[in-house]
């Protein structure tokens, strides 16, 4: 299918905003509502080839593709009595506050991602799907973690395997390590998990070292590139292009699932990278191209972290939707006045004026320019390449 005919299912249900830990929690669902309002303001929901879909919540059998029955039961219990806590399952804790919609909202977000995976795998109508409410990559089989209750990326991948996929690539560019997805497929040679993230030495979840490369039956199928705190556009893009395309070329995925946490941004309050909206947009464009080059266009794109609720997340994920739709937005475009008014109504802040941070990111290509053994970023890139590329028959 030609790229301009790939088609997009955008998964959205207003009820995903009930994934709400409460006032004062960083995971503010306003970021989801504002993203959808911006997508609508740019006319993307009615653009040619775009269909907005609302999928049903993931059912019990689907949730158990990744999560234990005991954990699903625990989520239901805590939702019924949110004044309780269940530290053994990571519920009602300092990070993962309990709330009444905990099970229903989490299952709904998971259902959107699973439906997106089914749509792109079958490819009868579309090759692309986006669920920017998804990307909850920290949840473990029996424990909530890092604001994540059900691990929708892992559930989407598990569903792809159930449908017969033999090679699924997961690429995670959130500032935090995609630990829950890595754990779910640690010893499964059918799944390649790639994560670029801030170093575990300085950020939760303190995993994702280059030496984490997969289980005994799947060596090299976990690939991690931890980046020094303070890494900005040039280093982030250099690292991505030095690592991701070669791995995908060697693995030959049939479908790509990507996670686009916006918390790599320099304005994000919870992390220490200094990436711009413009670099985030370039990586979304690169993932689109890689999906067409290596996976016949089959691409499920998810959201993730991102806690600059007005100034970053809506623009970052609207760019993602626009790219997946085949209708990219010029970064110099002004944000619609009606959207800025809505942002101010909801948050007291009008939000940014344009879809850009006003920079044109440039980077030195690792392959063309070699590496500097005295540079901390290049040391990290080389360590990651040495750890995983030889497992795929590639030179580090």
From TrEMBL:
Pfam family of the protein (one): Hist_deacetyl
Keywords: Acetoin catabolism
An example Gene Ontology biological process: acetoin catabolic process
Pathway: Ketone degradation; acetoin degradation
The keyword DNA damage appears for this protein: no
Keyword Transmembrane helix attached: no
Database matches in InterPro entries: AcuC (IPR003085), HDACs (IPR000286), His_deacetylse_dom (IPR023801), His_deacetylse_dom_sf (IPR037138), Ureohydrolase_dom_sf (IPR023696)
GO MF: histone deacetylase activity
Ranges for domain Histone deacetylase: 25-322
Family membership: Belongs to the histone deacetylase family.
Name of the protein in question: Acetoin utilization protein AcuC
Organism expressing this protein natively: Kitasatospora gansuensis
